[in-house]
């Protein structure tokens, strides 16, 4: 499959209920990564997009630790669960997303995880624009990550993100090949309420 076909897979397999920019459908989380490095310029662009996310009081609590070298990636694979290392070991870039739990006044920052999630969303969408794919992972051992990467206690460890170029489906194990397809979403009327919880929006 050619790269251009892969990049529109979301639109082939997903239908939106209302007209939206195709970028939202084309972002999905494949598991097959091509063994091809990501150009530093593209990395700068995707983290530039992540940088411009909104945050409570503009505190920008997100921090990313990247692993690109074989040594750094091997360290990351030590704290990622085996169900994920089975496919993410091919990803040329692994990123650990952290969020600072304290504000610049050293007070608890209620929105630290929410803001970090917004930043990841921006990054994931910019990856689509750059012809890259992303796959977030909660399946890892945060305590081990904290110890190995020397992460201070005031940072929450949010998620690991695999970043790279999409690989061939056939490179995956059979079990993963069956799941290598964009999924769908709950209907909009089960998600948006009006006035009070549970009352439909129409
Ligand atoms: C916080 C978070 C944790 C996730 N953890 C894992 C994981 O450990 N392993 C995995 O294969 N996918 C993981 N995913 C990917 C989700 O399963 C995926 O985003 C979801 O099914 C929607 O599919 P899509 O991203 O292809 O649209 C995670 C995603 C998020 C946002």
Automatic annotation (TrEMBL):
> Which Pfam family name is an example for this entry?
Nitroreductase
Q: Which GO terms describe its molecular function?
A: oxidoreductase activity
Q: Which residues form the Nitroreductase domain?
A: 26-84
Under the heading InterPro entries, the entry gives: Nitroreductase, Nitroreductase-like
Q: Does NADP show up as a keyword for this record?
A: no
> What PANTHER family does the entry give?
NAD(P)H NITROREDUCTASE YDGI-RELATED, NADH DEHYDROGENASE_NAD(P)H NITROREDUCTASE XCC3605-RELATED
Q: Which family does it belong to?
A: Belongs to the nitroreductase family.
Name recorded for this polypeptide:
Nitroreductase
Species this protein is from: Brevibacillus laterosporus LMG 15441
């Amino acid at each position: 499959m050619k790269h251009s076909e892969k990049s529109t897979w979301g639109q082939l397999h997903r239908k939106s209920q209302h007209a939206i920019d195709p970028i939202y459908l084309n972002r999905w989380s494949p598991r097959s990564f091509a063994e091809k490095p990501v150009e530093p310029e593209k990395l700068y662009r995707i983290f530039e997009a992540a940088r411009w996310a909104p945050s409570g009081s503009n505190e920008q609590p997100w921090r990313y630790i990247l692993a690109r070298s074989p040594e750094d990636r091997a360290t990351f694979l030590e704290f990622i669960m085996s169900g994920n290392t089975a496919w993410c070991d091919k990803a040329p870039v692994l990123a650990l997303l952290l969020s600072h739990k304290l504000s610049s006044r050293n007070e608890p920052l209620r929105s630290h995880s929410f803001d970090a999630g917004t930043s990841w969303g921006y990054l994931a969408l910019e990856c689509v624009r750059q012809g890259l794919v992303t796959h977030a992972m909660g399946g890892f051992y945060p305590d081990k990550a904290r110890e190995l990467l020397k992460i201070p206690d005031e940072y929450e460890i949010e998620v690991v993100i695999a970043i790279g170029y999409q690989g061939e489906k056939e490179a995956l194990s059979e079990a993963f090949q069956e799941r290598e397809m964009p999924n769908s979403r709950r209907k909009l009327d089960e998600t948006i309420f009006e006035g009070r919880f549970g009352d439909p929006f129409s």
